[in-house]
Amino acid sequence: MEAIISSSSCVFYRFLTTKDKFHTFIDAKYEVCQPDDTNENNDTNNETKESSVEEPQVKKLKWDPEDKKRLRGQNKSRPHRKPTMYEEKPLCVSVIQGNRKCFYGDKCKFHHVVADYMASKPPDIGDSCHLFDTFGKCQYGLSCRFGKTHTTADFQTLEKADVMKTYENRTPVKNSLTKDLQNSLRKRQVSFKKSEDYLKTFSNYKDKTEPKTLISEMSIATMTHKPMSMQPDATVCSAKRQISPEKPPAIKTAGPLTDVDVVRLRSCEKKQVDFRDKLYLAPLTTCGNLPFRRVCKRFGADITCGEMAMCTNLLQGQQSEWALLKRHESEDIFGVQVEGCFPDTMTRCAELINNHAQVDFVDINSGCPIDLVYKKGGGCGLMARTRKFEQIVKGMNYVLDVPLTVKIRTGVHEKSNIAHKLIPELKNWGVSMITLHGRSREQRYTKLADWDYINTCAELASPVPLFGNGDILSYEDAVKAKDTGVSGIMIARGALIKPWIFTEIKESRHWDISSTERLDMLKDFTNFGLEHWGSDTRGVEKTRNFLLEWLSFMCRYIPVGLLERVPQKINERPPYYMGRNYLESLMASQNVGDWVRISEMLLGPVPKNFNFLPKHKANSYK
Ligand SMILES: Cc1cc2nc3c(=O)[nH]c(=O)nc-3n(C[C@H](O)[C@H](O)[C@H](O)COP(=O)(O)O)c2cc1C
């Protein structure tokens, strides 16, 4: 290879087009792992205090602190700096919000004297504030890093009344956790009436406080909720009628009593979502945040899903976990993904989401391979714990008014696929859609997804829609995938590498996107990020961090105009090449220093002592 450019932090080589320069790219978001000694065929998982359902066969998992060091897929050793560390003494929120009384009084360690804060504040990043321009008001006021445009010489903050009017009574982002709900969850004052009804069907359920209802006499089997297309309405509806408690509780309404207050949705009246032939942006921990999803929506993604949330954390009212459920108004078909391993917590969590969030579907992540989840019996561990899986699916389906979907893998071990055995069961248990990632847990990303197997499974799943997932990076890949008979496709890394893949698929073309267009896309992301995480130093650094995580995938894109043969394949490592201009070369660099440089074009210089190592370390080379 011939070195062309050499700068302090990066070296590019002219793209020599011999095939031998391509070698398999082993992506290991979650590193490749060995089969572990969990007994897959038994319910060998832990019973923790979170579960009140007795499971006599359950073997306790011993928590060995030494194991922590060995947890795979966590990348725990990477340097971690909280965005709060970048500002020594921020301005107190009480001052930002208009000099209201500081809750912490004398003990508050933040600035209260505006002039002192302004003297120590780092310089502004840009001349216009996206929040001020868009909403007519910047809630970060004096602490905004683009604040000059909306701050007067005597430190007053400005507002644009006419622009503000457009946003009156409009909430572009939904599903925030309210303080009231958080307090109720912490004090365990939230009612899980429907979940309790369901959980009482277990003969070994411990809650002795509630009198038994009709439900306890019913077999779980009668509670199966098959999608409308598969089951005559009468079967489902009569089962539902039986399980209502004999005396319904008094109805609380916030106005006159209407049908909506009295008549609950029957399972056959569950909200329906037409999943077929849609492009589904995969749930992506860390990278699939709300600003990134907004970018993908603009490029044509049809279905979006929140990052995986842990059901126990949601039930505890953890703010950071609830942030994963947030939905932007542009996300018209939006679901949330939850992970858990017990029927009681998963059922309650579904009821909580049903009652307090606006979602179109709820997805169970039974494909997650990471040790932290798998060893507890969650993620793809559930695929081998069919009894628990059944109870979870039926319980969640019972409490949800929206469809329940499931994401699975081919199986746990490489040479023993189990998805085909599970799919007929999932149909019977009543899931509304199945996504199949065509690789096993053991394989991670080392081999190509098995689309022949996905095809077989799609036939088995019919009439329940099955989405195929794995290795789609071009519209040709998508066409081939659809030909296998799947109802739709899910795209994960392909969207991170080139979010415009959705446009390419919809328009059946290769888009030789320019580096300026890509920079504009990154600019949109940073603006959405500032809206989402804030335009103060903390928000700017959070936005930068998520931008860098994304750039660690995006650098793998090779511009169409430079390819010897189209399309680029996901499992081929991009060779070193020189772009058609400086920016294109910079965007192709696999050096963290260059990603940081791109972030500086959009978000100003990094703070002192800044360091970054991507979470998904397979993508970081320096
Ligand atoms: C960065 C990253 C984060 C992911 N996070 C999740 C997740 O939260 N939930 C999930 O079900 N799968 C997650 N996955 C797996 C993807 O959804 C998808 O199943 C997998 O990457 C295969 O699709 P692909 O070949 O199109 O990348 C993640 C994958 C990546 C690369």
Automatic annotation (TrEMBL):
Gene this chain is encoded by: dus3l
In this chain, the C3H1-type zinc fingers fall at 86-115
Cofactor names:
FMN
Q: Which CDD domains match?
A: DUS_like_FMN (cd02801)
Q: Which reaction does it catalyse?
A: a 5,6-dihydrouridine in mRNA + NADP(+) = a uridine in mRNA + NADPH + H(+); 5,6-dihydrouridine(47) in tRNA + NAD(+) = uridine(47) in tRNA + NADH + H(+); a 5,6-dihydrouridine in mRNA + NAD(+) = a uridine in mRNA + NADH + H(+); 5,6-dihydrouridine(47) in tRNA + NADP(+) = uridine(47) in tRNA + NADPH + H(+)
What Gene3D superfamilies does its record include?
A: Aldolase class I (3.20.20.70), Zinc finger, CCCH-type (4.10.1000.10)
Q: Could you tell me the Gene Ontology terms of the biological process aspect for this record?
A: mRNA processing
What role does this protein play? Catalyzes the synthesis of dihydrouridine, a modified base, in various RNAs, such as tRNAs, mRNAs and some long non-coding RNAs (lncRNAs). Mainly modifies the uridine in position 47 (U47) in the D-loop of most cytoplasmic tRNAs. Also able to mediate the formation of dihydrouridine in some mRNAs, thereby regulating their translation.
Show the SUPFAM superfamilies listed in the entry.
FMN-linked oxidoreductases (SSF51395)
Disordered: annotated segments: 36-83
Q: Where is the C3H1-type domain?
A: 86-115
Superkingdom of origin:
Eukaryota
What is this protein's record name? tRNA-dihydrouridine(47) synthase [NAD(P)(+)]
Family stated for the protein in its record: Belongs to the dus family. Dus3 subfamily.
Q: Which UniProt keywords apply?
A: Flavoprotein, FMN, Metal-binding, mRNA processing, NAD, NADP, Oxidoreductase, Repeat, tRNA processing, Zinc, Zinc-finger
Residue spans of biased composition, Basic residues class? 70-83
Q: Output the InterPro entries linked to this UniProt entry.
A: Aldolase_TIM, DUS-like_FMN-bd, tRNA_hU_synthase_CS, Znf_CCCH
What lineage is this protein's organism placed in? Eukaryota, Metazoa, Chordata, Craniata, Vertebrata
Q: Which is an annotated GO molecular function term of this record?
A: RNA binding
Q: In the Enzyme Commission scheme, what number(s) does this protein have?
A: 1.3.1.-
Which Pfam families does the record cross-reference, listed alphabetically? Dus, zf-CCCH_DUS3L
* Tagged with keyword Translocase: no
Q: Which ranges are annotated Basic and acidic residues under compositional bias?
A: 46-69
